[in-house]
Amino acid sequence: MHAVLLLFAMLTPDSLRSAAHEYYEWGDRQYPVGSSDSGKHTWDDRLTDYAPAQVQMRAAHVRQLLERVRHADISSWSKDDKIDWILFRSQLETTEFFDRVIKSEETNPQVYVGEASNAIFSLLKKEYDTPRNRALAATARLRAVPAMIEQGKRNLTHPIGLYAEWAAQSARSIDPLYNDSLMTLARGLTPAEHDALIAAKDGALQSLHAFADWLDARKGSMAEWRAMGEQNYSYMLHHILLLPLSTRDVAHLGEVELARYRALEAWLPDPSLADPNPQRAKSIPADQQAFLAAYQSREQEMIDFLKQKRLVTIPDYIGPFIIRQLPEAFKPTSPGGFMNPPGLYDSDNSGFYFIPTYNPQSRNFYIRAAIEDPRPILGHEGIPGHFLQISIANHLPDEIRRHHGDTVFVEGWALYGEEMLFREGLYPPDSASAGQVLRLARYRAARIGVDVNLQTGKWNFDQAVNYFMEAGGLDRESATGEAAGAASSPTQKISYMTGKWQIMRLPGRYRDAKGASFRLGQFHDDLIASGSLPLSVKTWILLDDPSELEKATGLTLH
Q1: What are the beta bridge partners of residue 338?
Q2: Phi/psi of residue 489, nearest 5 degrees
Q3: What pLDDT tens digit does each residue of the chain (558 aa) get?
Q4: What are the boundaries of each domain within the chain?
Q5: Distance (Å, rounded) from C-alpha 142 to C-alpha 183?
Q6: Are 68 and 22 in contact (CB under 8 A)?
Q7: Contacts of 29 (CB under 8 A, 6+ apart)
């Protein structure tokens, strides 16, 4: 035992970074679809191996490395070395926690449908290679889908009925991705290669449709969705997100911010301005392509505004941000679409925002908002939001910080940007655009109540949906999708308002430190320059104050 502890204590800053590099390389090999999605295309012809022995091996590898990192003596390390140790430890804590507590391979059929979707989606979204080579990689992956699905059935020893419902929906919605999007790559194939692709595609679709039927047939006997409980939730807050807040602190923050934004909506001369209405738009797009083009066209005016006001620096390496249609397979848990930034290894610097299928009569909040004025959401997803911030993070020289993806900061920065642009004058104070900013903040505040109460067991799923509708002001479709995301991705929904609140606590202190040289745009540049790191870490970096990080971790860092 003494020898083991001595080995742990011998970890140095250099060996920490070597261990981290080896871990990232190992992870890319173990999760080839995730690797493709990040822009590394070494294993584009493979799927993740979900055989129990492999699942157990991966979990054991992470546990052993985490124990080594936990036992390191960092008391004499520099500030930067301590930060890297804390960040790498939290990355390992994340994986170990999900292996130990969430156990997705055993409980969540979405793991296997998601693998089948992303296996192809990650090959399509960027033209990193010739269509033929990508099609050949797709053929190999599609051939492996039926075996992967069969392995998934064997692994699902404790499936959750709610997850099964969403997985079945996604499995039955995957056809356009395979039949239409994928087949755009087939033009360079030989006849034999084309036939092989078709056969692999049809076999994969058959297995996915059968999986949906298999799930439906067993759903009545599956377990009810179960909350992780307050102890586990608190563990995530402190050890994974490095938040200096208790579960009650987070819940209270949601209550305060929800009350504030509901009041601000009520103060509008016409409170209905907060509820997007396409009929108020100057023009309604005629079809899907016109809708995407109208959305895209507003980006430049936002960039011009940011430059004119010197609110943030946009580096020369920032690429185009493109609006695309959301694949139907992703709709059940992403009703508002999702943003796809440049991958960590991407040589292509472009990014995308996938938005729901256009329907001018839709009651979907995101569709209505996009028709009336897409700028608030566009700013969140694009520039100055996710696309800009994550692109900058991807260029960090420090590998550990480059690999860190703290959702509280990432989502907090994007939500902060929505209101910052409003307060800086992009939208008239009593306009529908300003009203949309308030409604967006209101339902992000409602997300906190749903996430905390759902995951700590105080609410059931129906209560969560109703809260999104009543307190958050969302339609039922959007509210159901939001609640689905909270159920399947614990703590993700608290990220927005919690991160924004943490950021809002910094400019005043930063201004006090800078004195007469303070400039808001410089604060923004300094804030996002260090990557997607927890705000307790950024407070130490920006203001040399480790107290929040010490409170979150229980460490003494002075």
Answers
A1: 354
A2: -130, 75
A3: 444 444 444 899 999 999 999 999 999 999 999 999 999 999 999 999 999 999 999 999 999 999 999 999 999 999 999 999 999 999 999 999 999 999 999 999 999 999 999 999 999 888 999 999 999 999 999 999 999 999 999 999 999 999 999 999 999 999 989 998 899 899 889 999 999 999 999 999 999 999 999 999 999 999 999 999 999 999 999 999 999 999 999 999 999 999 999 999 999 999 999 999 998 988 888 888 888 888 888 999 999 999 999 999 999 999 999 988 877 666 665 666 788 899 999 999 999 988 878 888 888 888 898 899 999 999 999 999 999 999 999 999 999 999 999 999 999 999 999 999 999 999 998 999 999 999 999 999 999 999 999 999 999 999 999 999 999 888 888 888 889 889 889 999 999 999 999 999 999 999 999 999 999 999 999 999 999 999 999 999 999 999 999 999 999 998
A4: 230-504
A5: 13
A6: no
A7: 35, 43
- Model-wide pTM > 0.90: yes
- Residues with Cβ within 8 Å of 182's Cβ and at least 6 positions away in sequence, in order, are 120, 124, 135, 138, 201
Rg (CA), the chain: 23
Pairing of strands 321-325, 338-340: unpaired
Residue 153 phi/psi, 5° resolution? -60, -40
540 Cβ partners below 8 Å, 6+ apart?
79, 83, 546, 548, 549, 557
Residues written for the chain: 558
Exposed/middle/buried for residue 159 (C-beta within 10 Å: 0-12, 13-18, 19+): buried
> Pseudo-torsion of CA 227, 230, 231, 234, nearest 10°?
110
Whether the CB-CB separation of 317 and 287 falls below 8 Å is answered with no
Q: Give CA–CA dist 469/383, Å, rounded.
A: 29
3-state secondary structure string across 338-349:
EEECCCCCCCCC
Give the amino acid at 146: P
Residue that is written with structure tokens 């994550």 in the block = 390
Residue 524's nearest CA partner among 404, 437, 426, 414 is 414
Strand 351-355 to 321-325 pairing? parallel
Residue 226, H or E segment: none
Separation of alpha carbons 312 and 389, rounded Å: 10
Residue with tokens 């959702």: 407
